Amino acid sequence: MSDATSRSKSDEDITVVHLMRHGEVHNPDGVLYGRRAGYHLSELGRQMADRVAESLADRDITYVVSSPLERAQETATPIAKTHGLDLATDERLIEAANVFEGKTFGVGDGALRKPGNWKHLTNPFQPSWGEPYVEQVVRMMGALDAAKDAARGHEAVCVSHQLPIWIVRSFVEKRRLWHDPRRRQCTLASLTSFTYRGDKIVSVGYSEPARDLVPAHLLAGAKPVKGKSKAFGA
């Protein structure tokens, strides 16, 4: 096959990369856990992971990769097992860094009234309290491209976290990166699916295979409930 023919065939390859958010985490103290180790899926979270694995059982998935954090690894495992694949790890899929990691920072807890926190809340456009949105875009696009190359002509699943998934989707769909966190369309165990023709993203889809298992206050657009901050399920 000539180089020209090879390039032409590559340009016509259709590859789908599913960015999946992990399932619910066991976190009775309501800590914003961020990149901390030791946070595992709850029993409900495991049900979510199994549900998504079942929904993807007939798909042409040839590559499964995950953030290194336990909750993501545990979410990805049933999918890899269903397809007889080894689970890969990509550090670029990790949760966004956040200075409030390890603290409770939810509705009604008074965090915004604490002077010590104000210095971190000066620039919502960057944002000033954590990893810059642009840096998240760079690493997440790198992870997407790597998964696309690994599964070229087939499908891949990348398990990551709410904020990085929403930020890279916003970038691809040409929306501003700063946003209202309550409006993220990225429910627990949801799939944000990027379809590539060759190396170009041609469409983005979204689905919630485990929607009936997701607590109502954690669905996109839900009104925050005191003591049940959405931030905890990042």
N-to-C CA distance: 47 Å
User: Which structural class best describes the helix and strand composition?
Assistant: alpha/beta
Rg value: 18 Å
How confident is the prediction overall: mean pLDDT?
A: 85
Share of residues in helices? 25-40%
Write down the oligomeric state. Answer: single chain
Query: What proportion strand?
Result: 15-25%
Model regions low in confidence, pLDDT < 50 over at least 5 residues: 4-8, 229-233
Could you give the order of strands across the largest sheet?
Answer: 3-2-4-1-5-6
- Structural shape: globular
Topology as a string of helices (H) and strands (E): HEHEHEHHEHEE
Tally of DSSP β-strands: 6
The number of helical runs is 6
Characterize the largest beta sheet: strand count, sense, and whether it forms a barrel: 6 strands, mixed
Q: Could you describe the 3D structure shown?
A:
- The chain is of the alpha/beta class.
- It is 29% helix and 16% strand.
- Helix 3 (70-82) links the parallel strand 2 and strand 3 (87-89).
What is the secondary structure topology, with strand pairs?
Blueprint: H1 3-12, E1 14-21, H2 43-55, E2 61-66, H3 70-82, E3 87-89, H4 115-118, H5 133-150, E4 155-160, H6 162-172, E5 191-197, E6 200-207
